[in-house]
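In response to a reviewer's request, we include the raw inputs and outputs for one of the modeled complexes. The two entities were modeled together in a single run.
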Amino acid sequence: MAKYKIKIIRDKCIGAASCVGIAPKTFKLDEENIAVLISEDGDTPENILLGAQSCPTNAVEVYDAQTNEKVWPKE
Amino acid sequence: MNQPEQYKGRVAEHILINERFQYLHIELKEPHELEFQAGQYISMDVGGQVRRAYSIASAPSMKHAVELCVDITPDGKGSKYLKSLRPGSEVSFLAPLGVFVMKPGEQKLLFVATGTGIAPLRSMILDLLKDKQDARPIWLYWGLRFVEDMFWEEEFRQMHEFFKNFNFHLTLSKPPNHWPLCNGYVTDCLKNELKLDADWGVYLCGSKEMVVDGNKLMIEMGVLKEQVHFEKF
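The model returned the following structure tokens for the whole complex.
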């Protein structure tokens, strides 16, 4: 089971592709240059979280799959 | 593009350019070299599990360090963290990130910045002129508000003197009396001075308003939509 649930806020995504660079088996850009999810366990949990954390607009939200607690962003 | 990695660095220079802008020179510790493309950014850990994205202002040829130029007036977590740094402070960041990089095949280049939007464009211009001796016509329009905001203008003026294919225009939206150069919004100044067409590639970085208006204007002026590139943060 994947460690994290991932939610991408399309309105916030600017297509900077930092998530794709860090976790390329989890995220990709669609034809509108917006990040979409490929799989919630495509990369290591560490890289998935780093991919979310690297987003300049906090467009990727990460939740603990078991507790549903928001892991990122914190603010 | 290179795979992003976690970097640790040490602040070597920390200069408050003026009340608004801060310059940082960070020497890399581990890994000790960064391969990146001009225009990319770093994601810095600013404490409290918060990260901020800062464009790299130095050229890719400077592999052992990165230079940043940041607007610190928002006074948010990122600004406070940067202001707290001192020479010797350790920082950690992810790099390289981003896809705002030079595209091939464009015959003439126009760079348009407002404020610290100049950072990634400076990296691109240094890379093109100093490291690659690129001979294409290159124009830089840079908009600031006040005379007091001005920095790096001498560096760009010297590059204009040295590289005959490089044209530099600084504009002020709130100039003093008798300001001899173009005043007003940077997009208005370039609209009146440049003729653009499908040969041009345009790179925009700065305030959201300038990027949105500039993007529209470039297409109206004849630049192909796919040759207008911009950084959106």
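As requested, we also summarize the result in words. The interface with chain B takes residues 14-18, 21-22, 50, 53-54, 56-57, 72-75 of chain A (CB under 8 Å). The first strand of chain A starts at residue 4 and ends at 8.
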